[in-house]
Amino acid sequence: MRKREAYLRVCCFLILKLVCGPFAVGGEVVAIATASCPVHASFENEHYVIRHAYVKDPFSFLRWLKPVLSDANGAVSFLNGQPYSVTAVSKGVDALDKLTFLGDSNDQALAVLVTIVSVENCDARQLDVVYQIYSTRVSPILTTTLESRSREKETPQEQAGATRPAFFRFKPIAGYDRSDRLFGGSRLEAQVPQSTHTPFNSLIAEGWGSTSGHSASVALAGSRDPVKSWFQHAEWRLNYAHSESPTDLQSLKRGRVAAQFSAASRPTGSAGWTLRFGGLAEGGNLQSGFSPADLATNTVASAGYGAIKLYAGTTSRTRHQVFSASYGLELGSTGGGRQVDWRKHVGDVAHELWYPVGNHRLIEVESRFTAGAIQVPGSIPLAARFFGGNQEQEFIPGDTWQIRAAPLIRSIPANRFYRTAQGAGAESFASYNWTGAYTVWRKPIAPDEILKNAQFLRQLNSSLTSAISTVTVTYLAKDPNFTKAASHIQEARDSITRFQDAVKAAEVAHPGQFTQDFKQCRSALARASQRAKSAAEAKAVDAFGDIAALLNSDPTGDENRLQKVEVACITGLNGQLNDSTIATEGATLSSIGATMQHDFDQIDEKLAVAQAQQEMGYVKNTLETLLNDVNFFSISPLAVFDVAHIGPANALLGGTRYGTGAGLRFALVSTASFTLGYAWNVHSHPGEGRGALFFAVGFRDLFQ
Fold first, then answer.
1. Are residues 568 and 514 in the same domain?
2. pLDDT tens-digit series, residues 506-526
3. Within a domain: residue 27?
4. pLDDT number for residue 44
5. 361 and 252, same structural domain?
6. Distance CA 116, CA 456 (A)
7. Are 271 and 366 in contact (CB under 8 A)?
């Protein structure tokens, strides 16, 4: 039996833009037994020497992190060749705490740093000390969305906040389906710092092509996370896009210019319910090569158009589930007229459930129901109708909010499920998609032995509990009643100064008398003065503790400085002196204190605690996901079932189709992810084929 000792230190930081600086809550060193060094060995007493001390990070493959890790290794290199001791190892943790692993952030986010120190490779009275760093920046809004779960599986380093804004981001794009065939392309994003106060902070160019189709777009995008607004995240974009999407007969061509905006509220409730809404205005051309004989009477093959899209919905996320419901309305016009020629309605409901079965082995179930309908009082371009198949189509292309806008059925190639009783292009649809997967092989980000250690989990929970207390103060300090109380702090400070002058004058007038009483009064005034000075010079969050200490708001009774001034100076000293000046200054200070106390007592402490608990709940969920669910590499077999209906339908055209199949998902976090499968078209109609292959590959940002 062999083991190694490990130590944990947890630090939580709250970063609120324009509100406060970082707060740190640290944990004590905790020993964790794993497998590597002799059992029951006392490395310090047995005079082991540290052979090598170094730092590991689960996201060390990110290019930007390499200089940070180099600095971190330099920070602990002083341990090389030194005698092993817990004190020396703790100094290494202290040195790492001074480094910035996540960088500065302007956004409203919670940053968490977990440092685990392990002792390994014990041989010939020498050992290695390994510091493992788990760092994550948690956005309370963006981590509660349905889309966050997809990013978590595809790019966990992004969902964990382990990325930094870079001037350039580059991702290859590749995939295959029967309609588009083998295609390839890339996405390039150039960013500018948000501190420049420009409306747009990124330029995004994306495109792919194949022998049968293409898609290209360029966009200017911006986003903000306002602190004082009722909505907590906003995005906007100016976009030009052009695409050609093949069907089995002709291609659909789209060219458009669009301006769009979306926003999300702060999550509320234990499930983190977030409200989202947005709008888009676009114009361009929709073209196709279909002949008039293929079309419904109110449909044109090609036309210029203008459209307005409005959309709203809600999303939430708990520990093992995520839910989203969205509705979109499109009002369109052909030929540049102001009349509404068509109205399109889309509803999209999605639910994902994942549950661990064993360590880092997940059962995942994804289900989604989407429906749509089009009303055509005028005429509609064919490409604006519904075309289904095994390729997802979004109501707002390129938006981070993914609302599905066409029937998805993986057993029919892209854009080939469209023939109806009235002609090409569906007027209504409904589809349900189910995917189940199970992880059969994986390499976890967090070592197994850490997750099995009860002491580690207790310390982690203890640190999160301490962090809740710290975060609570930030919400207490934002209460308008605290602002009112704090507005009197300079008055209190000036009053204390005058009080001190009055006591000094009285002491001169009574030499050698009431020595102990004068001493107690001076001490009480000095401590109250120091608290008032600190409160006056500090920011709101830092001032909260000082003002609470001045007033009768300290549950331990150790502070309450103004009350102690009253006891020592007014009741005690002046009860014997009966000095009119001291009495006047005492009454003034008591009046100011009473006003501040009244305002302070109106602060909604229960609300602040609830807000802090909710905020830190996102941190806890993210940490639990990072430690218990996320893998570096994984292979998951998956099963799929789809049912989709398009209309209007008759015995031969339109109607309902079924698809069932299986596949394999291979995730390689440091490089790419692959999904490969085949779905059979149950009871296929003539010309549809017996099924379809679905394949996708996603590459990570090569500039990270």
1. yes
2. 999 998 898 999 999 999 999
3. yes
4. 81
5. yes
6. 10
7. no
